[in-house]
Design goal:
The protein is globular and about 80 Å long. Helix content is 27%, strand content 18%. With 548 residues, the chain is of the alpha/beta class. Helix 9 packs antiparallel against helix 10, helix 9 crosses helix 11 and helix 13 runs parallel beside helix 15. An eight-stranded parallel β-barrel has the order 1-2-5-9-10-11-12-16. The chain has a five-stranded antiparallel beta sheet with strand order 17-18-19-23-21. It is built from 16 helices and 23 strands. The protein starts with 14 loop residues before the first strand and ends in a 6-residue tail after the last strand. It binds alpha-D-glucopyranose. The site of alpha-D-glucopyranose (GLC) has 9 residues, from loops.
Length: 548
């Protein structure tokens, strides 16, 4: 039940995040490209998603996989030409797929001509494009994000003899958004890509746009004022396009990025993500219910984005130190699996490659409030490679077939940008699209099915959500309602059979039907309804019956 041209299309869309470099190589240089992605659009369409989110595609030295932009107006030559990109947009749109790209407003690469000019001298006309200081003493209350690589948010520049500010790698100087020329420059960048026809942006690292002494330099009023200007600009000229915020913050702080429906349309729900894993390991729904209850309501035109994994480490910034220690012990037993405040593993290995747990978490993703984002490869249960540095181990080539290089590129290519996963459990010979497409019972086919089910029921996309109390905390039970459609969702977080007793008298006479399996359940009668769930079982019960 797609929303087609509806301006609110994103409210019940399913997103697919992919890295062009990792997806499909059409010109046999060992690196994925736009033409390769075009070849695979039918696959993406068949998965049933509505919108592709592309990791940065711009010119870049790739020291942070493109989040270090060297030119906002040109594409990375490895990915193809502007014509190739335009062809990708046209081919995606022809299939009813939208495309959003990354917008990095907070910083650039140190190779960006603005920075090259800025650092050339203290009097350079572009000096004020970045944040300079004679000392490294300012903004001491700002935390360091890349803890494993950076010791300070200041880096000394020998060329001009001052320090520049950077919240991420030291080769990524922060732009000075206090400078009106920079503010305008980012609007110009947006206009260029929106005019080309992209459907919106995933805006990178937005909490850090401004710096003010005496604050932690996150979520500042100046940041929100600028972001509202960005939104006004979008609304004036590009209705129907979307802005999605990457703000790794507590729910009450992320809430402000929606404004009064006049800032971002969407924002990732970072805090709920680790709690899905936490609840599973503890066999207790409480972490999920507590964080969802702590999540403020958002304006009608806005929506959350939920996800299980992405291209970064599984961040543990939005949990308590105790929860973080528990998560590290439970999910990253080896030190090389940890990175900064997170875990650099993919979904399937995190869940012991246990199909029941993989399905369970995906079912939560598809039924909790918010538009789900699937990270490429997780739909087939791809593995990771912790021997690769930084986050590279979760950015390996997509596994299309059991041919050499997983069908990602031609067999004659001397090497790929990073090795294809080739271990006994997750290697491409075993885990690949071709084999799973043939197998009716595969994870891929299940994912397609769950997405289809979700789309047939708008309550799962934009319905209200209420968590039901029941004595048994191993079962997460929530109710999604929209336009007269009620769906009762249950997840058994434990490895044992569980029963729950619910008060469903409002639905007396109804025969619940599990949407994914089509099975019917005994009619609801009286005060007490008892359900038994097999280990890790999930149910999406449609409560349709005589009018209430
Ligand atoms: C965001 C991106 C991450 C990148 C960082 C710096 O957090 O998700 O991949 O390294 O910003 O741009």
């Amino acid at each position: 039940m797609g929303r087609g041209n509806d301006e609110l299309w994103y409210k019940d869309a399913v997103f697919y995040e992919l890295y062009v470099r990792a997806f499909c190589d059409s010109d046999d240089d060992g690196k994925g490209d736009f033409q390769g992605l075009i070849r695979k659009l039918d696959y993406v369409q068949e998965l049933g998603v509505d919108c592709i989110w592309l990791l940065p595609i711009y010119a870049s030295p790739l020291r942070d996989d493109g989040y270090d932009v060297a030119d906002f107006y040109s594409l990375h030559p490895d990915y193809g030409t502007l014509q190739d990109f335009q062809a990708l947009l046209a081919e995606a749109h022809r299939r009813g797929l939208r495309i959003v790209t990354d917008l990095v407003m907070n910083h650039t690469s140190d190779q960006h001509p603005w920075f090259v000019e800025s650092r050339s001298s203290k009097t350079s006309p572009k000096r004020d494009y970045y944040v300079w200081s004679a000392t490294d003493h300012k903004y001491r209350d700002a935390r360091i994000i890349f803890l494993d690589t950076e010791e300070s948010n200041w880096a000394y520049d020998r060329i001009s003899g001052e320090y520049y500010w950077h919240r991420f790698f030291s080769h990524q100087p922060d732009l000075n958004l206090d400078n009106p020329a920079v503010q305008q420059a980012m609007l110009d960048v947006m206009a260029y890509w929106l005019d080309m026809g992209i459907d919106g942006f995933r805006a990178d690292a937005v909490p850090y746009l401004y710096e003010r002494e005496g604050t932690n330099c996150e979520n500042l009023p100046e940041t929100h004022a600028y972001l509202k200007r960005v939104r006004r600009f979008l609304d004036q000229r590009y209705k129907g396009r979307v802005l999605l915020a990457e703000a790794n913050q507590w729910p009450e702080d992320v809430r402000s990025y929606f404004g009064a429906g006049d800032e971002f349309h969407m924002a990732f729900h970072f805090p709920v993500m680790p709690r899905l894993y936490l609840a599973l390991k503890r066999q207790d729904r409480s972490p999920i219910v507590e964080i969802m209850k702590r999540t403020p309501a958002i304006p009608e035109s806005c929506q959350w984005c939920t996800f299980l994994r992405n291209h970064d480490e599984l961040t543990l910034e939005m949990v308590t130190p105790q929860e973080r220690a528990f998560m590290w012990d439970a999910y990253a037993p080896q030190p090389e699996m940890r990175l900064n405040l997170g875990i650099r593993r993919r979904l399937a290995p995190l869940l012991d490659n246990d199909r029941r747990k993989i399905e369970l978490l995906n079912s939560m993703l598809f039924t909790l409030p918010g538009s789900p984002v699937i990270y490429y490869g997780d739909e087939i249960g791809m593995g990771d490679n912790v021997a690769l540095p930084d986050r590279n181990g979760v950015r390996t080539p997509m596994q299309w077939s059991d041919e050499p290089y997983a069908g990602f590129c031609d067999q004659a290519v001397p090497s790929t940008y990073t090795p294809v996963i080739d271990d006994p459990a997750y290697g491409y010979r075993r885990v690949n699209v071709e084999a799973q497409a043939r197998d009716g019972g595969s994870l891929l086919n299940l994912m397609r099915h769950l997405i289809r089910c979700r789309k047939q029921h708008q309550a799962l996309g934009c319905g209200s959500c209420e968590f039901l109390e029941s004595a048994n905390r191993t079962v997460l039970t929530h109710l999604r309602c929209h336009g007269g459609e009620d769906i009762l969702v249950l997840h058994n977080l434990s490895a044992a059979t569980q029963s729950v007793t619910l008060d469903l008298q409002d639905w007396a006479g109804v025969v619940p039907i599990d949407i994914p399996s089509g099975s019917t359940f005994p009619p609801i009668s009286g005060r007490v309804y008892e359900l038994k769930l097999a280990p890790y079982q999930y149910l999406w019960l449609l409560l349709e019956g005589p009018p209430r």
